[in-house]
Amino acid sequence: MSDKVLYVAVAGQPNSGKSTMFNAMTGATARVGNYPGISVERTEGNVRLPDGTTIRLVDLPGTYSLTAYSQEEVIARNVIFNEKPDAVINLLDATSLERSLYLTLQTMEIGANVVIGLNMMDEVKKQHIHIDSEKLSALLGVPVVECCARRGMGADKLLEMARQQALARPETIEPLYISYGPDIDPVLEEFTAKIEAAGFMTERYPARWLAIKYLEEDEVIVAQGRKAGPLGQALEQRVAEVSAALQATRNTYPEAMIADYRYGFINGLTRQDVISREDDMRFNYSDKIDKVVTHRLLGPVIMCMLLYAMFYITFTLGAYPQGWVENLFALLGALVESALPEGLLRSMIVNGAIDGVGAVMSFTPLILLMFLMLVFLEDLGYMGRVAYMLDRVMQTFGLHGASVMPFIISGGLPGGCAVPGVMAARTLRSKRERLATIFTAPFMVCGAKTTAFIMLTAAFFPENPTRAMFIIVLLAWAFALLTALLLRKTVIRGASTPFIMELPPYRLPTLHGVLIHTWDRVWQYIKKAGTVILAVSILMWALMTFPELPEAEREAFEAQRRGIEQQARAHTGDGPSGQIAEGLITDALTAMDDAEAQASLLHTFAGRLGKGLEPVTQYAGFPWQANIALIGAFAAKEVFVSTMATTYSMNSAAEIEESTDLSKRLATDPAYTRPVVFSLIVFLLLYAPCLVTVVAIIRETSLGWGLFTLFGSLAFSYLVAVGVYQLSSLFF
């Protein structure tokens, strides 16, 4: 048995099934989506083989190449160069072998110890295509393994091949040599000789690879070369001369020629009986479906119908389990009330923890249904089509086609999260488009906002909550696009860059995969409710409890109650008139209890703050209770729901069963007129991102841009909310 530890990187282009295979090999449940741009974070896992060898796997970001066009490509390249893995498993989409081999060639040109995994071989066979993996292995000189990631087929063999390749690795691996033609090869030889003679960055990079990168005008390498010595400047000047000569003689440039020759190499490789097809089965099912699904007119209609159907199913089917969860927390609250004596401890547990967390948790069935449908569409491959259809729209508003994915991940289809959405903006090469995307992505309806909007639509639009949610999502897109256009015309000016995207083939998701990915998201929601929401709910309870109402004011309320009770003894009696009097007195006592509860809340820190903000928020129509909830929601948007639940629980003497149904309590509050509801919805859409998102924005950009996002969105949302309230007040 061996105790050896080997370090293996897993690389691949987007949609190649790389992350799915990584999960199959490690048993991990990392997020996998069938669209570009999802793998932007480093994920690791350990696998112990039967012989005792431990393989430490790292899942590299999905990249189309190793040229520094995006942060993903730089990250993947740096791992291979800096961490020097013992082997690199390069997973290929076998249904698009020619395109997938482009990354393989670049990885081999670096001198990496490569093992190729031909993924989606089940799809290849369905399309009546034959790939001779042994022939491909012999031509490239590296192991080739046929596999199917979504079924876990080939995972063990890939690991074994990686182990064998790593253990047999020589001291130095000869990088793959590709001829780039009579115009480029002499220049490469010239550059390579100069680089080797000067020892120019050769301690880290192969000399010929450096020469190629200079001809490709790789921004990262050129920037490093300027710091490394005078040769860098000389190479840049020489590249400019070569580019000018190629432009004059061939109307092209070095990078394009290098790419052409790489694809030529691949074409020559596959023509050596590596791929064979049956002529009568060349049609592609995905292409036939896309003629309808991505049609200029039908495509957007189908997309809107799917979105509407998602909301309809969510509200229709989710209403039943939502009621069960509400009743469960109502029962829990009643049990705690009966078990504990009246006092601060009971109030904290019932009004703070149970009411706060219960209000958020009651929406779990609806969130689960929405995530289930969203994950199915992602794994099916439909999200790539949404990006394709919206590309032209994004360009019109000064964004990039790739901005669609950060928007969708952030909640463009409700249920996302702005944090990974902001991080997914790394795929944008243009800094200006990236900043505009990062600033507006939090406008989308993330999972946290979904909870708040489900509550508001159920309260104020009970006749058709589906239509209300659908309109809210469309508003989120409209505000994001218009704000992006405003930014691109003022603060972040600059030309747009072209968009190129590969549409992944449709693949029927597996039930296991959909359930795992859905549970991942729902568990994050539940975990957040049990940690962040619970902590903030208790904090908000404390702010809404202390300082307590002075004894003199309490005594005044008590004196009024005694007066009511004395009247009760004087007027009550047998018969109908006595029963009517009893009912009026009971109502009077309840009103007195509510008045004392409201006075107590207004005396607390939170009540004073909420009331103190009224001179500003009155122009947007916000009740002071909403001010408290909006402040708490800065920590996490779900806190808006939990704080509203706590506020209404402590603002009234109602029984616990009544206070758990927050939507009904809001609907009966006369402070929430239609203009107020419209204003509140718009403000929730646009106002400051949650604390975690702000931190992510600062990490992705800078402190200045993070503060600009925070205060800029806060000011913008307030101005829009004021406008909406004032205008709608004219009609309602």
Structural summary, described in words:
By secondary structure, this protein is mainly alpha-helical. Among the domains are: 5-167, Rossmann fold (3-Layer(aba) Sandwich); 181-281, Helix Hairpins; 548-603. The chain is built from 33 helices and eight strands. The strands form two sheets. The protein has a six-stranded mixed sheet, sandwiched between helices. Strands 6-8 form a two-stranded antiparallel ribbon. Helix 14 crosses helix 28 (639-650). The longest helix has 42 residues, at 298-339. 44% of the residues are buried. The model is unreliable at 29-39, 279-283 and 653-660 (pLDDT under 50).
CATH architecture of the domain at 5-167: 3-Layer(aba) Sandwich
Q: Unreliable stretches, pLDDT < 50, 5 or more residues? A: 29-39, 279-283, 653-660
Q: Mean of the pLDDT scores?
A: 84
Structural class by helix and strand composition: mainly alpha
Total number of strands: 8
Task: Supply the key terms.
33 helices; Rossmann fold; 732 residues; single chain; Helix Hairpins; mainly alpha; 8 strands; elongated
Element layout with pairings:
Layout: E1 5-12, H1 18-26, E2 43-48, E3 54-59, H2 71-83, E4 87-93, H3 97-110, E5 114-119, H4 121-126, E6 129-131, H5 133-140, E7 144-146, H6 155-167, H7 181-198, H8 207-215, H9 219-228, H10 230-250, H11 254-270, E8 275-277, H12 285-293, H13 298-339, H14 344-361, H15 364-380, H16 382-396, H17 404-412, H18 418-424, H19 431-440, H20 447-460, H21 465-489, H22 511-543, H23 551-571, H24 576-603, H25 605-612, H26 614-617, H27 624-632, H28 639-650, H29 656-659, H30 662-667, H31 674-686, H32 691-700, H33 703-729
Parallel strand pairs: 1-3, 1-4, 4-5, 5-7
Antiparallel strand pairs: 2-3, 6-8
